[in-house]
Write a structure and sequence with these properties.
The strands form two sheets. Strands 1, 2, 5, 6, 8, 11 and 13 form a seven-stranded antiparallel sheet that branches. A six-stranded antiparallel sheet has the order 3-4-7-12-9-10, with no helix packed on it. The chain is of the alpha+beta class and about 230 residues long. Helix content is about 15%, strand content about 35%. About 35% of the residues are buried. The chain has two helices and 13 strands; from the N terminus they run αβββββββββββββα. The chain has two domains: about 40 residues, no CATH class; about 190 residues, Jelly Rolls (Sandwich), CATH 2.60.120.
Length: about 230
């Protein structure tokens, strides 16, 4: 095999592996449907992801200590709806579950805002063992949409504001987990009458290359070395 043919083979195989391992949306919630009117209680399940390569078994839900919590769907950040709730106390959370089997380099991104009296201090927590243990990925502050000094406007259905974009990497513990769990947990210690809402949640990662593609890449590398 001449040099040109060798590198042609290597190039084709490399491109195939690159496409296979490119970033992919695993499960995403763009909130196309609203929470039914009058939902009150300590917990609520919004349901499975509406897009992504691995939506089976996925879920978005929330839990509050107060049984009087009202769950609703005001406008999202450039989407029709968001998931919103009031009556926050420390430890209350929104929760996402998604299968990352067959994926690595997993991360989660989301938009989040609050009312003027809603909780602002949050943490993203992750569990790879069905909730038996939790690790903290990041602490963050939620800004008020349209608040003074934020250079933002209220959330609406047509304008997605980048100021609310947040993301965090899951790390190696998030690779290849059948039911990876994320929580957006309130660290604010007081009870709030105000609301906090979340939108545009995306779990993403890179697909593990198929064994055949890896084998072909190895053959291409061997051919290249033999030619040299």
């Amino acid at each position: 095999m001449n040099n040109r043919t060798t590198w042609a083979v290597a190039g084709v195989v490399s491109a195939a592996v690159s496409l296979t391992a490119s970033g992919a949306v695993i499960a995403a919630w763009s909130m196309p449907t609203a929470v039914p009117t009058g939902i009150i209680g300590s917990s609520y399940s919004y349901g499975t992801a509406n897009s992504g390569d691995s939506t089976g078994g996925s879920s978005l839900s929330g839990f509050h200590t107060l049984a009087t919590t009202v769950w609703s769907s005001p406008s999202g950040n450039g989407s029709l709806y968001s998931l919103s709730s009031n009556g926050w106390t420390a430890g209350d959370y929104y929760q996402v579950v998604a299968s990352t089997t067959g994926f690595y380099g997993v991360s989660i991104s989301w938009n989040q805002t609050r009312s003027s009296t809603g909780p602002s201090l949050f943490a993203v927590q992750m569990s790879h063992d069905s909730g038996a243990s939790w690790m903290s990925l990041v602490n963050y502050t939620v800004i008020q949409a349209g608040g003074v000094g934020t250079n933002t406007t209220s959330w609406n259905t047509t304008t997605g504001q980048a100021a609310f974009d947040m993301s965090v990497a899951a790390g190696a513990m998030g690779d290849g987990v059948g039911g990876l769990m994320f929580r957006f947990r309130s660290n604010t210690t007081s009870t709030f009458a105000g609301t906090n809402r979340i939108d545009n949640i995306v779990v993403s990662g890179s697909a593990v290359p198929a064994p055949g593609a890896i084998a072909l890449l190895g053959i291409a590398g061997l051919l290249a070395r033999r030619r040299r």
